[in-house]
Prior knowledge:
The chain is mainly alpha-helical and 205 residues long. It has helices at residues 9-72, 74-81, 109-114, 124-135, 137-204, and strands spanning 89-96, 99-106. The chain has a single domain, classed as Helix Hairpins (Orthogonal Bundle), CATH 1.10.287. It is built from 5 helices and 2 strands; from the N terminus they run H-H-E-E-H-H-H. A two-stranded antiparallel ribbon has the order 1-2.
Amino acid sequence: MKLKVNPTRQELLKIKKRLKTAESGHSLLKEKLDGLMQEFLANIRGLKSARKRLEEKISPAFLEFLISNNRLGTQRTEDLISHLPLAEIDLSFFNIMGVKIRKGEIKNREEIKESEISLIATDNNLHQSREKIIDAIDDIIEYANLTIKVRLLAEEIEKTRRRVNSLEHVYIPEMERIKKYISQKLEERERFDRTVVLKLKELIN
């Protein structure tokens, strides 16, 4: 297929410059992709560990709550815990290789830890459930933060991989093809010019 490009030396210089920029960008993106993958895999391992720790703490807490709820009834249980404070999350942001990561921290940690279930509640399972949940607060936050971090890293990896593939399999090969086409046309023109000059010399002589 004939390329719609003007085969001049100026155009060849432009293509060479674009090609060099693309190859440099491809190299940088490959390095970024490798770094993102290492970060992603490290956080996946951390996420698995955090999930295991959380499950070990939450499962007993949930079981205690179910036992209490079954004994007291849903309405009674809700009345006894309705005054307990909800977690207030403070978000901060940091950057990993161009990825903006959100990190949550509980603002009212001490308030939550110091809060007590109504003194009129005599159900030990409900108290045990609360204690186990309090003990798991840091694990809950860590798991949530890692989950968000892994998701954002995965999205950036996919985006970066698409850009790398586009440069590697589409843009750079196209620039190489145009460069080759212009070079061939210029060589043909030079050969033609030399032939014309030789013919002119022959005629003059």
